[in-house]
Amino acid sequence: MGKKKRERVLSETEAQAVARNIRISPQKLNLVAQLIRGKKVAAALADLEFSRKRIARDVKKCLESAIANAENNHSLDVDDLIVAQAHVGKALVMKRFHARARGRAGAIQKPFSHLTIIVRQVEEKAAA
């Protein structure tokens, strides 16, 4: 018996990877995600490799995972992949405090984020 197989949410030409609980605010992570949206995979990897942002390393790791999923699980051609979507979601927020003057406390929030990258295979248009 067992459970029924879950229907595939993405189309046959798409693959995704999700990085959860990344220790950075969604606003900062979105700046790096904007760099790669809509680009070919090779160009996106090059941009992340030479980005000066600390979080670019984690985004690159997630993108490489999406590429590997496309190649190994869905038999897509790596050379024809583009980054279809790269969206950032809010995760938990650790709350800490910092001692201030006269017995008060200052709130410190340490946010976490989720990153989802979807790659899509597009056919190259033949040059006429």
From TrEMBL:
UniProt keyword Repeat present: no
SUPFAM superfamilies xrefs: Ribosomal protein L22
A single GO molecular function term of this UniProt record: rRNA binding
Transmembrane stretches, start-end: none
GO cellular component, one term: cytosolic large ribosomal subunit
Domain of life: Bacteria
Coiled coil: none
Subunit structure: Part of the 50S ribosomal subunit.
PANTHER family in the cross-refs: CHLOROPLAST 50S RIBOSOMAL PROTEIN L22-RELATED, LARGE RIBOSOMAL SUBUNIT PROTEIN UL22M
Function: The globular domain of the protein is located near the polypeptide exit tunnel on the outside of the subunit, while an extended beta-hairpin is found that lines the wall of the exit tunnel in the center of the 70S ribosome. This protein binds specifically to 23S rRNA; its binding is stimulated by other ribosomal proteins, e.g., L4, L17, and L20. It is important during the early stages of 50S assembly. It makes multiple contacts with different domains of the 23S rRNA in the assembled 50S subunit and ribosome.
Family, similarity comment: Belongs to the universal ribosomal protein uL22 family.
Protein known as: Large ribosomal subunit protein uL22
The organism of origin for this protein: Variibacter gotjawalensis
The encoding gene: rplV
